[in-house]
Every structure is written in C-alpha cells, then in structure tokens.
Design brief:
135 residues, single chain
Length: 135
C-alpha cells in the first residue's frame, strides 16, 4: 500500500508542477511581443541576378522604419522588428529600401528611398520568404 501511495503522490506533484508552469511556457513560446504578432520574414535581394550584400533592407510604413535585416554575402536576409531583436515583422504592406554605410557597395540611388524604390512587400500572418530581383 505504501508503494501505491508514493506513486500517487509523485503523480500529483508532477501534475501540479506542470499545471503551475504551463502558462509560463506559453508566454515564452509565443511570437507575440507586447500584444503584437510578429511573422518570420526571410528573403534574398539581387540586382540583375547578382546578390546584393553588405547592406541593410528596411521596411517602412507611414514613413516610419518597422523592420530591418542585414544582407549576407549571398543576398539573403532575416528581418527583425525595430523594437525587438528577433521575431520578424508585423503583418501588413510595406515600402522597402536599401541602406548602406559610407564606403559600402554602390547601387542606384532610387533603391535608397522607400518612396522611389518600387519595392513593395506584403507580410502575411505566417512565415514569409521573398525573392527581390531588381533590374
């Protein structure tokens, strides 16, 4: 009888611990930050088929930077929200532009301004992967 009682107590302790910790596990696994859902966004930028690298792609909405990502050597990027280090971008429609530091690679100046770049990105509520080939 004592073995049965011991196993029952172990099971109850495990259930109580799991029940107490489950809300915290849900909080830490969510892609919501401050009540805002962030969608993962990846992609690749090329100009005439060649990868664009050593630059940053910025997504703007209403004249405000909303997300950004560093272009790697092969032109690939992963976006981060401007307020959080990870997570992607909020779903919605954005104007995008490319930004480089002084001495960075040269690209046509129209791609540096979101109003003239012609790069429109529509982020969906789930995972997004964009291929942006500029002429």
């Amino acid at each position: 009888m004592s073995v049965h009682l011991h196993r029952t107590r172990q099971w109850m302790a495990w259930m109580l611990t799991a029940t107490a910790l489950s809300p915290f596990a849900l909080c830490f696994s969510s892609t919501e930050k401050g009540g805002v859902h962030l969608s993962p966004v990846t992609g690749r930028v090329t100009i005439s088929g060649r990868p664009v690298n050593d630059m940053t792609i910025c997504l703007d909405s209403g004249g405000v930077h909303r997300a950004y990502g560093w272009l790697g050597g092969d032109g690939t990027f992963q976006l981060s929200h401007v307020q959080w280090v990870d997570g992607g971008a909020e779903p919605g429609r954005y104007s995008a532009h490319l930004y480089s530091r002084a001495g960075g690679p040269e690209i046509p100046s129209k791609y540096r301004d979101p109003a003239t770049s012609g790069i429109e990105i529509n982020v969906a509520a789930d995972w997004n992967d964009f291929r942006i080939d500029l002429p």
